[in-house]
Amino acid sequence: MLAPRCRILDNSAIIESSRFLTLPRLSTHMNNKPLLIGIILVLASELTFALVGALIKHLSEDASAVQIVFFRNLFALVPLIPWLTSNRRVLFKTPNLRFHYLRATTGIIAMFIYTYALSHTSLVNGAMTLMLAPFFIPLIAYFWLGQVQSRLTISCIILGFIGATICLTTKTQIDAPPLHWGLAALILFGAVLIAISKTTISKMVGSEPSKAIVAYFSLISIVVCGVMLPFSWQSISPITFLLLVLLGITSSIGQLMMTSAFRKAGASTIGMFSYSSILFAAMLGALWWNEYPSVVWFLGAGIVVLAGFLAIKYNRTPYRV
User: Fold this and answer.
1) Are the CB atoms for 257 and 41 separated by under 8 Å?
2) How many whole angstroms separate alpha carbon 165 and alpha carbon 180?
3) How does pLDDT run across 8-19, given as a tens digit for each residue?
4) Overall pTM surpassing 0.90 (yes/no)
5) Dihedral of the CA atoms 229, 289, 245, 61 (nearest 10)?
6) C-alpha to C-alpha distances, 124 to 127, 177, 253, nearest whole angstrom
7) pLDDT, tens digit, 9 for 90 and up, residues 265-304
8) Rounded to whole angstroms, how far apart are CA atoms 240 and 273?
9) What are the residue boundaries of the structural domains of the chain, listed by start?
10) Hey, is 96 helix, strand or coil?
């Protein structure tokens, strides 16, 4: 099956991975109030993630990609400090060290690709790095986990890639040139890496606390980027530093809201609202950089959203890992 857009800016691995790997059935007796709260929270989280993308695009003008990734992960650890303080033994007794390294490797490279894409194309095209990742997860599950995919899943993947092809080969602005094929390929590669990262999370959630998964990723990212930081350091203003702090904290807040949303209601009911992020990205791109996507681009994005919606709504085949 497919599920909502996955993301590299996460602070709740267990909720994220469950969204990609299973779609729980909701009870018919679910109260409307939790459902409404869940919808509001998921919309708020998607707006927050669009803001994170906008912040990365803005910061790329004044800070290096290494600085952005380093400080994003550093300040994203702030909400985990109480847990890290009281669970040091749990953190260093992991049975999944190789999976932590795999997740960190794919996640860090994907972060750099996402940052590069945002700095070299429009906000909406950069966001496609995140939106397309769920369409690769069933393929990875097939080749890595040996899970046979349904015809619906295959049809949704094909439909999603048709929409992605339209988006990545057409102009995002009337007076702008089409996206270069090399950058389009890089965006697709970034989506593949994100999908591998999320599938790796699914291999660990049964034997690893979710906070430990997040902490390992952040700590490894800090160490790797910390080694590169002296060679990529750029002088930054106090305002830029504050924006870097805001980037990390905002990422955490967005993921906490997403976590709460999926505790209120299941992915099969509210997951479709995750695709609202493309509208928020288009809105912020227009307001911040005067980026107005063309009608053809919105057609392609609509096909991607439709493919995701059909998979979420009608595909009930769980992934078992």
Assistant:
1) yes
2) 12
3) 445 444 334 444
4) no
5) 20
6) 5, 15, 22
7) 665 566 667 778 888 998 999 899 888 888 888 899 899 8
8) 32
9) 13-21+32-314
10) coil
